[in-house]
Design goal:
345 residues; alpha+beta; 9-stranded mixed beta sheet; 13 strands; 35% helix; binds iron/sulfur cluster
Length: 345
């Protein structure tokens, strides 16, 4: 394993930014979000970003086709991503969300834009030293301080970052910055392993203290389609969609055309199952006519339908929806009330 001293980080950012667009969690106006780094930008690894980094692969709004019409002719021009990029400082929960998005966008029919970005991107994940109050990734068998699927795994050890390449892309990136790296001593490597164990144990203990886990959850949710739980929960939902926009695994989108005179563009933009129009048909029929059906859909999709189809939950326990829902409609409350068994009880 390698390490890089913190005083060399400014050099590291510059070196990497010359090779590819470099995304970091950046502090701006009191908020941390992933954005392309430029000189003077304030990198902040201290808290997870408000908006998840899924928007680097699956942009919030994206033009993918331009068109012009003329006399009897229609000209089409597709717009494709070309730039290589490095996504640096992704938390393990957010990295796990890419596996979930892959199930949607890489299986047939493949989404070409998403697939291309997955090829163009190199993922550097940073382990959590201290999971946040609303985090519960261990409930979904994830680790706060380790991300399978990362090209490079990095741990903040105080004076330095430990650096472990974990894929061919990660090895290539390491070769680029080799002059800045030193060999880590065995006791420093051992400290990273201890960090992994203690953060995972700490978060798992916090989940137990909250009184729920996900063992047996799918079984518990089967047959709850008409349960009074949804009746109880939905009244306070405002239908604002914040929970879905900020969720790293939510992947629904709409397609719209914008045109003026004889030219225009086609773009995709994030959509939300929490909106009344989401399932509204042109006939006026709506199979999810009230917020009750929409709230139920969101939770059952994440916790029952998606795992039944793909074998993994569509929640990585990042806690963003728990923090940001204005009325505290909390997925952990749903898990608990639906009957998820308390681990170890
Ligand atoms: S964030 Fe809360 S209030 Fe807004 S749609 Fe989601 S559950 Fe409803
Ligand atoms: S449902 Fe909530 S906790 Fe789970 S991944 Fe989405 S935002 Fe994070």
């Amino acid at each position: 394993m390698k390490k890089i001293a913190k005083e060399k980080l400014a050099l590291l950012w510059e070196l990497l930014a010359h090779k590819a667009t470099l995304y970091f969690p950046l502090q701006e106006d009191g908020a941390v979000n992933f954005a392309p780094w430029k000189n003077g930008a304030q990198v902040d690894f201290g808290v997870n970003s408000i908006v998840p980094p899924k928007n680097v692969f699956f942009p919030q709004a994206e033009t993918y086709l331009r068109f012009k019409t003329g006399a009897k002719r229609l000209q089409l021009e597709s717009v494709e991503p070309e730039e290589k990029f490095i996504l640096f400082g992704v938390r393990p929960c957010d990295l796990a969300s890419f596996n979930i998005l892959d199930k949607i966008f890489l299986e047939e029919p493949t989404d070409g834009l998403y697939a291309k970005r997955r090829r163009l991107g190199t993922l550097v994940s940073m382990g959590c030293n201290e999971p946040g109050e609303t985090c519960f990734c261990t409930s979904f068998a994830l680790e706060p301080a380790f991300a399978p699927g990362a090209d490079v795994m990095v741990w903040d050890m105080g004076e330095f970052l430990l650096w472990e390449p974990r894929s061919t892309k990660g090895e290539a990136l390491t070769a680029v910055i080799n002059e800045l790296l030193d060999e880590a001593a065995p006791e420093e490597t051992a400290a990273a392993v201890r960090l992994r164990d203690t953060t995972a144990a700490g978060e798992a203990a916090a989940a137990r203290q909250r009184g729920w886990n996900t063992e047996g959850l799918q079984e518990a949710l089967r047959g709850k389609f008409n349960d009074e739980l949804w009746e109880k929960l939905y009244h306070r939902c405002l239908g604002c969609g914040i929970c879905t926009y900020l969720c790293p695994t939510c992947h629904c989108f709409d397609i719209q055309d914008f045109s003026r005179d004889l030219e225009g563009e086609r773009f995709s933009c994030w959509d939300s199952c929490m909106f009344a129009e989401f399932t509204l048909m042109t006939s006026g029929e709506n199979p999810r006519p009230t917020q009750k059906e929409r709230v139920r859909q969101r939770f059952l999709h994440k916790l029952l339908y998606f795992p039944s189809k793909f074998g993994l939950y569509a929640c990585v326990g990042c806690g963003r929806c728990v923090r940001k829902c204005p009325v505290h409609l909390d997925i952990t409350q749903v898990i608990k009330e639906a009957g998820g068994v308390v681990s170890g009880s």
